[in-house]
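Dear V.,

Thank you for sending over the compound details. I've combined the ligand you provided, coenzyme A, with the protein sequence from our construct and run the structure prediction for the complex. I'm sharing the raw inputs here so there's no ambiguity about protonation or stereochemistry in the SMILES, which I know was a concern on your side last time.
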Amino acid sequence: MTYAPFLVAALDAAGHDRRQFDSGTPALDRYLREQVSQDIRRRVAACFVALTDEQRIAGYYTLATASVPLADLPDELRRKLPRYGVVPALRMGRLAVDTAFKGLGLGGALLINALRRAANSEIPAAVLIVDAKDDRAAAFYRHHGFSPLADSPQTLFLPLTSVR
Ligand SMILES: CC(C)(COP(=O)(O)OP(=O)(O)OC[C@H]1O[C@@H](n2cnc3c(N)ncnc32)[C@H](O)[C@@H]1OP(=O)(O)O)[C@@H](O)C(=O)NCCC(=O)NCCS
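Below is the predicted structure of the protein with coenzyme A bound, written out as C-alpha cells.
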C-alpha cells in the first residue's frame, strides 16, 4: 500500500475550497459542496479532508454515530459483546477521492485515518460501518478487511477492537 503525502484535517467550511472537487461521483461532490457544512453545524456528521500542499482537497470522508443490531454481527464477534439489542457504531457515510489523485493510495490512507480516529475516540464504538454505494465500493472495503452485515450486505463493518 502506498501513502501519498497529504495532510488530513477537519474540514474548514469557510477556508477550504470545495468547488473544484471531482470524484467522478456527482452525488459525493455535491454533498461536499452543498450539504456537508449544514450537517456539521447540526452535529449530525463530521468531515475530514486530505489536503495537498496547496490546500486543494484531494479526498474526504465523513463520520457519524450509528448503531448496529447485535443479531447482524457474526457469532464470533457477538460472543465478545454484551447482549444488548444494538451495538454502538460509527458510520463512515462517505469516502471519495478526487479523480486527479486516484490510485495513489489515498483512499486506503483515508480509510485507515478514519479507523484510527474511530478507535481512539473518547466516545466508544464497537464497530466502524460503511455504506457501499455499489459493488465496486463494496469490493474496495472487502479488500481492506470489512465484512458485510448479515441483514444488509451493502453495509460492511470492521470491529474497532481489532484496530486498537
Ligand atoms: C473507492 C475510492 C475511494 C478508492 O480511492 P483510491 O485512492 O483510488 O484507492 P487507493 O489507491 O487508496 O487503493 C487502495 C487499495 O485498494 C484497492 N482498490 C481500489 N479500488 C478497489 C476496488 N473497487 N475493489 C477492490 N480493491 C480496490 C487498490 O488496489 C489498493 O490496493 P493495495 O493497497 O493492495 O495496493 C475512489 O476510487 C473513489 O473516490 N471512488 C468514487 C467514490 C466511491 O466509490 N466511494 C466509496 C464509498 S461510497
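A first observation: The mean pLDDT is 94.

Warm regards,
I. M.
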